[in-house]
Each structure stands twice: as structure tokens, then as C-alpha cells.
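Quick sanity check, ATP-binding protein:
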Amino acid sequence: MTSLRPNLVKRIARLPKPTNVADALQPLFEAISNAIHSTQARFQEAVARDGRVQVTIKTDRRKDNVSAIVEDNGLGLDEDNWDAFITTDTDNKIAIGGKGVGRLLWLDCFPNIRIDSVYADGDGFKRRQFEFVLELSDQIKNLSVEDFRDAPGPYFLAEFKGLRSNGYHEKWPGRGSFIFQHLTSHFLPTFIGKRCPQITVHVGDESRVYPGAINEIVHRREDIEKIESEEFGDLKLTMMECDKVASADLKGSHFIHFIAHDRTVHSHSIDSKLGLKYFGADENLVFHAILTGPFLDKNVNQERTKFQFEDAVLERMVNDVCWAHVEKFLEGPLAALKGEQRVKIESITATYPSVAFGDVEELQQKVPSGELKEDALYGHLSRERFRRDERQAEKIRSVLTRLKNDDIDPEMFASAIKDAGKAIEDAEQKSLAEYIVRRKVVLDFIELLLDKVRDQGGDASYQREDILHSFICPMRVSTITGSGKKVEPASSHDLWIVDERLTFAQYFSSDVDFASLSEAASSEDRPDLLIFDYVHGLRQKKDPSKVLLVEFKRPGRKVYSDDENPQLQVERYVRRLQSGELSDVRGRPIKLDQNTIFYCFIVADIVGKMADWTFTWQRTADGRGRVMRPSDGFRGSIELIGWDDLLKDARERNQAFFDKAGITGQSFFSAD
């Protein structure tokens, strides 16, 4: 029979190469993990008392003479473990997370590996020694197995020398403090557990003994043994207040460590959610938490370096599983942030009342305690508003379902209808309030911008004029190129400032050649806005249509050319529309008769030539504006509105809404 021949060299070449310090240390951590597992297997529940692991590491900035020795007093390389060692991808330790690739990582990282082990054999002991090399075959070199009758007990020693130039040499830490930091983080769940052997680590001249060394930096600890989650099953959360040195070499201060099979796979920074740099009386504490559970064990990759699910899952585990416990654990430090967060929430709900579904205290319960970013706060509140709306929609659907039943209780049905109706009314009021706030902001902004435009001086300040014009409505709309151009609808505008009849007008062009409305048009005149009050654009109807024209002039402008006489401009536009040469937004010819009514608005400061041209026009009822109603040519009117009067009238029209919404008269852009 013929079997497939494995190519170990290519298999190892395809292993993920290190991209950071933690990845580079993974082969060493695999050896330490094996040592811990071996002592746990030998001493069982007594491992904390009798188990011993010793790690000796040498490194420097040049990293030319790196070496590491890992020793333990576990079971040693007995016959079962030896068989597993020489079998790739073994399932010997699958129950505790072993993937059978740890020693493959050794070969990928270290060019020189020596193994020395004593193990029990019958009534005595044997010693097994060999060199482990990366070759196509015969990876076990200089193997010797001999009796060792005087051995004090079983042990295992792995010695590693040198680093390969496949990423390990570049990413391996040259400072001992980095090794201690990453080792502490990686084995933190083991160190704080009850089945950790005594682990002595020597790096250069510095030594630390774990798990005791952990207790020096952990000031407070709380274990949540079981958190039930429908999506993630049962999880365990351990929370700790630590000295800030625990985060000295990490990118951040506060972390939740996601653990699989007693190993740190991902350290998730929660700095932005907590809103804290450090905390405690001396501002020297950080927060670390350990999350473990079968869900994480089952979803880690073979090398135990990454989880096999999207990062969004980690976010959900933080938000939905951990966060309530984190907030309670850090209740004291987070209390100081409540006041600042309250101010931000009050500001958000003032501008966006639709997310103000409760008082500030209730809203704060729906967002992370330390969250201070406005966009994140709005996101949390919007999500909660959506969930509430969904629950209310379900209630309404339930009412409709009950309505179909013949045996429905009239009293119960009436009560359900009342509750559903009230909820809908509340939601509508919130949305309306938000719309009203937006109108107030628009008016405040335009008032501010008017002053800026006028202060600029001269007639050449086109940039600020553009800004002012764009704020009321988009400067341009999309056009369809090809054999001619057709106007497409713009998404929104604020033409209600001019006249409430313009609120829902959706088809218009802004500051584009008048000819862009039709293939046939050739005029270069440019009305700032051509607005049709039909939602679907111009359509042929039995009744005469209404056309609205709006022309904006720069605030403060006094000088105009002779052909800018507003009456003459409007008349030219009207004649062009009546000519039948134009098409609507759907490409259909525009056919207007003598009964079409044209409502034309000119917004400008009534000074200079504008005042002279319109001197004989009728005055509006308030005496501020001017109106001209032509006796021939077309039906309708031309109304001249001053910029200040435009704002004043818009405020007066909306003041009742502002008062009802509790909006003050102070500008949103006030410096106070």
C-alpha cells in the first residue's frame, strides 16, 4: 500500500508569521503552556502546592544570542507523550485546547532545539534526549533513551537557541520588561486561577515568581462565575483593579481579555467606553477583566492567536455580556463622569428630541457609564429608541391580531388601543420636536451668516454668498448626461423660509443654466431656483398649474447691471416657460396656458438700484416688502422680500412651535 508523504518543511512555512511581539513570543508561550499542563496532569488538584515550572530567557537589543530554557516537574516525555510528540496534529490534549501544533511553532521560530526528559517507566525512570530539527525527514536527531535509576523524579526540559529571520528575529522583544509584560498578560487567567503551579521566570538579572507576582499588582478582584447568554452560552468574568504597570506595554489602559483554553487570544481595549485614563486616589489604577467560556474555546484558530468570528462578535460580548458588571465593579470611578455625560446627553436631546424617550437619568442607564463621545451617545440612544419602537410596533400588531378574533374582550381591546395610540402620539411628538429644533438652527445659522456676508463688503464676496445660498437649498442638482440634460430631484431643502408653500416642493434646479432644464432650451439666463409644486415634477393636468420662481440676491448688495432688473428678469423667465420649448423632469413638453399662475419671489436687501427699480411697486401689508402684480403677460405676482424681513417673518411663523417645544430665543450659535 502507498501513503501520502507529509512535507513538514512546507507545512511550517505556511504557518502564520509574527506581526507583533505577542506573535513572536507564541512558540515560547507554547512551551510554557505545555509545562503547566504537564504539572497539572501529574499533581491534579495539588498542582498549586507541588507543581514547578522554571523559565530562563536571555535576550538583548541585537537579538543575536537569544536563548530560552523551559523546565517542569510534570510527567515528562513518557511513552504516551512521546507518541503524541512524533505525531503531527495530534489530539492528545484536545480536551484542554491542545491543537498539536505547538512544537511546529518551535521549529518555525528556533533553529536549535534540544529536549531532555526523565519519565517514569515501571518501577524506575528513563531519560530521553534528542535534538529537534526542521528537515523534510528525520526531524529527531541523536536520540538516546537510557535508564536513570537515581533520578529524583520525572521532568521535562526544552532548550531553544537563536531566532529565524522569517519575522521572529524582527519582532522578538529585546527588552526583558516586554517579555514579563506579555507573559503576564498571556497567562493571566492561569495565574489568577486555582490550578497554577509555581512558575519562576528569569530574564537576564531580573526574576519573578508567579502567581505571587500577580498579587503585587492586583488590588481588587471580583469573580462572576456564571453569566448566562443566549447567544454565547455560559461565560465566566473575572474583574480586577490593577496597578497601571499592568498596562505599561499595551496600547491603552483598560482591557477585557478574551481567553481560550487558558490562553489570551485577544485583548480588547475599552478606554473609549470607560472614558478614564487612570483612576483611584493616586490615579494609578487600571481595569483588567478575563472572559472565558466554552464558546470562546470552540471558536479559536489552530494556533490560538485569533478567534474564528468577526470583531463585531467581540463588541457584542463586551456590550451585552460584560458591560453591566463592569459598570457595577467600577461604580466609584465612573461616578465622577456622570455629570459630564449628563450635560452631553442634555445637549443631544435638545437638538434631537426623538431620542429623548425618558428623563436624563433613564437615558444614562441606556449608555455606557464612561461614554463621552457625542456620536457614540447618540448611537446608543438611537438604538434604544429603535428597540422601543419595535416593541411598540409589536404591541400594535398584537392589537390587530386580537381584533380579528371574534371573542375579543371589548374592554381589553379598548385599553390596548389606548396604550398603542398614546405610544404613537409620543413618538410623533418627539419627531416633530426634532423637526422644529432643526428649523430654529437653520434660522440662527442664516442670521449669523448674513452678518458675515455683509461684513465682508463689496460685491465680489461670492464664496460666502454660495454658502448662504447652499444652506437654503443645494447649489446644484444631478443631471443626466447624453442627448440633453434633465433635472433630477434634490433630496431636501429649506425653502419654507421663503414661503411655507415651498416646504414640500421637490423638483428644482439651483444656480445652473436655465437651458439645463431641457434639450431645447438655449438661454443663458440663470434663475437661482425653478420650483414646481408637484411632488412628481411638471405633469400635464386638466387644471392650470402653479409655478414658483425664487431669486436670491447677495445680502448687502447695492450695485446691479441694467439687465438684472428683477421685473425684466422674471418676465424673461416666464416667457421662456410659456414658449413650450422646455420639458419637465420626465422629458415631457411643458405646455402652460394663459391661466398658469406664477408666484415669483426675490430675496434681497432693498437698497441701491434694487430700491430704485421697485420704488413704484405696492408695499406689503407690513410695509416692509414690495409686490408687483402684472396686468398683462402672465397671471401671478412678483414679491420682493428683504433678508432681515425674511428671517423675522420665518421666526414669527414658527415661534408658536418653538414655544411649544420649549426652545429658548437664544441662538444655538451664541458664544454664551
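Posting the structure with no commentary besides this: The mean pLDDT is 79.
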